[in-house]
Write a structure and sequence with these properties.
The protein is an alpha+beta fold and 521 residues long. 37% of the residues lie in helices and 21% in strands. The protein has 20 helices and 20 strands. It has an 18-stranded mixed sheet, with helices on both faces. Strands 7-14 form a two-stranded parallel ribbon. Helix 3 packs parallel to helix 4 and helix 4 runs antiparallel to helix 11. The chain is globular, with a radius of gyration of 23 Å. The protein starts with a helix and ends with a helix.
Length: 521
């Protein structure tokens, strides 16, 4: 079997390409002195209304509102937009987002767009058109040798550089006029904003004004000017570089029309009773909660450094330090949760301190990464023996308790990455509690000291008394797992077979895990 797989890879490698030498690009930095802009004045008024810290915060739990917040900030910007994303998809959300960047550039706003290259192969033609507009510059992080095609196909054609291209930029950040920033777990695609017909993510962003925005802008600049970032122009075919800029712009507009959808249906208020960011911008002030924050971003050159699986880098280390500092309670919400020996040790130490540990993650039915779920499932008995309260989202339970009807018939999937500690501190950002976030991907995390914001976030979990989740417990034998849930009458039901499991799914997972071990990826 290994010889057969090796032969296939040899054939693939025969058609592999290599990257040309990188051409250095002019450095640039975040706009300063933007306090006189409309967004600057709104930020000043909003912060004055929320004394008690150097930063103001607002949760964005609703997908529709989180997307509209980005569009509203892009429309209100007059000086600059800096956007950094792991994935922008060529769908209705991607089209609306790119159109907002184009429209801002037409008004004279400087637009800097930084995208990880892994998912960008199918977006190149749109990015080419966007970059043809004055005031727009597009750059790519850690490009793969193969330019076009699906991510998996490009990765297979890049196996000769696997040690490098297996590292990706997972950061997600949007900054308008260096006055307001949106950060958290959402990429730019329909499923992150409750616009997808088949599956949608439950996610969380934070909008901030004040001191942390300047820290986030500095993080963006470090990536934008790093040696791991390439100009889009260098990745385009020579014939495409020779296209007239006006033709590129026309092609961009045409492509957007082909994939654009109807305007998003944004509810007037979200799960917390907050009106939209757009409405509050129109009123001249945003309702923010005061506090302070620290930004923890991995260095861009993490993708070229040696991999040390025993040493987490900056963003993960900061998240683990906040968790380790818990004295009363730590609540971890994460879609892909692989604690490993370090995580189990931290749970054991928390138990010895008398600290309550509550973990919320995906069930087999809600995960989009079944292999990760399979690996996580091996840790469940040990975590439960340590006294951890373990919850898994059930897609049918989420739909049943969905007061806003946002998910319809689609599959809800947890994607939020947040930690609440002692009902005071909260960590949000792109960091998953797994080995990829720890040592392979670059990540962005923000530690927030704001008790009111943390209580709001935890309140989202408790709003339906966990009716959208299974609570896992050990059976009488102390080894097998039970899934406890409440039915419509409020009575507790117990399942001893894994929800959503099937014989075919078990065989498929076994084959996938065996294949991965066979090819040593």
């Amino acid at each position: 079997m290994r010889r057969w797989l090796t032969a296939i890879f040899v054939l693939l490698l025969a058609g592999c390409t290599t990257l040309p030498p990188r051409i250095a690009q002019p450095a640039s930095s975040a706009m300063v002195a933007t306090g006189v802009t409309p967004l600057g004045r709104i930020a000043a008024v909003s912060l004055a209304d929320a004394p008690g810290g150097d930063t103001g915060f607002r949760l964005l739990p609703s997908g529709e509102m989180a997307f509209d917040a980005r569009l509203a900030l892009a429309e209100a910007a007059t000086r600059s937009i800096d956007a950094q994303y792991y994935h922008i998809h060529a769908d209705t959300a991607g089209a609306a987002f790119l159109a907002a960047l184009r429209d801002a550039a037409r008004r004279g706003v400087r637009v800097r767009l930084l995208v990880d290259d892994y998912n960008a192969g199918e977006l190149y033609l749109l990015l080419r058109g966007l970059a043809a507009f004055p005031n727009v510059e597009v750059r790519l992080f850690n490009p793969l040798p193969a330019r076009y095609g699906t991510p998996i196909g490009r990765m297979l054609m890049s196996l000769h550089e696997y040690a490098r291209v297996n590292h990706r930029m997972h950061n997600k950040l949007f900054v308008a006029d260096n006055q307001f920033a949106v950060y958290g777990g959402r990429n730019i695609a329909d499923e992150y904003f409750t616009r997808h017909g088949q599956a949608n993510f439950i996610d969380l962003d934070v909008l901030s004004a004040g001191a942390v925005v300047r820290e986030l802008s500095a993080s963006f600049d470090r990536y934008w000017n790093s040696e791991q970032v390439w100009a889009l122009e260098q990745r385009l075919h020579v014939l495409e570089r020779d296209m007239d800029p006006a033709e590129r712009r026309a092609d961009f507009d045409m492509r957007l029309k082909e994939i654009a959808g109807p305007p998003p249906n944004v509810p007037p208020r979200d799960h917390l009773g907050q009106s939209t960011v757009r409405a509050q911008i129109a009123q001249g002030r945003l309702q923010l909660l005061p506090g302070t924050a620290r930004v923890h971003d991995d260095p861009p050159d993490k993708v070229v450094g040696p991999v040390d699986t025993n040493k987490a880098t900056r963003a993960m280390r900061a998240k683990l330090d906040v968790i380790a500092g818990a004295r009363e309670e730590v609540v971890v919400v994460n879609p892909y949760f692989l604690p490993g020996p370090v995580g189990l040790r931290m749970m054991r130490e928390a138990q010895q301190r008398g600290t309550r540990v509550l973990i919320v993650t995906n069930s087999l039915g809600s995960t989009d990464e079944p292999l990760v779920y399979r690996a996580y499932s091996r840790y469940r008995p040990e975590m439960l023996k340590l006294g951890v309260e373990l919850y898994e989202f059930g897609p049918e339970l989420v739909r049943r308790s969905d007061r806003f009807g946002a998910f319809g018939k689609s599959t809800p999937r947890l994607h939020a990455k947040a930690v609440g500690v002692d009902r005071r501190w909260m960590v949000v950002g792109s960091v998953n509690l797994d080995l990829r976030s720890a040592v392979l991907n670059t990540e962005l995390g923000v530690t927030i000291d704001c008790a009111a914001l943390t209580r709001q976030a935890l309140g989202l979990l408790r709003a339906d008394a966990f009716a959208s989740m299974y609570r896992l417990q050990l059976g009488e034998d102390g080894q097998t797992i039970e899934w406890h849930l409440r039915d419509d009458s409020g009575k507790t039901q117990v399942r001893r077979d894994e929800p959503h499991a099937s014989l075919w799914q078990g065989i498929s997972l076994w084959l996938q895990s065996w294949l991965i071990s066979e090819i040593d990826l």
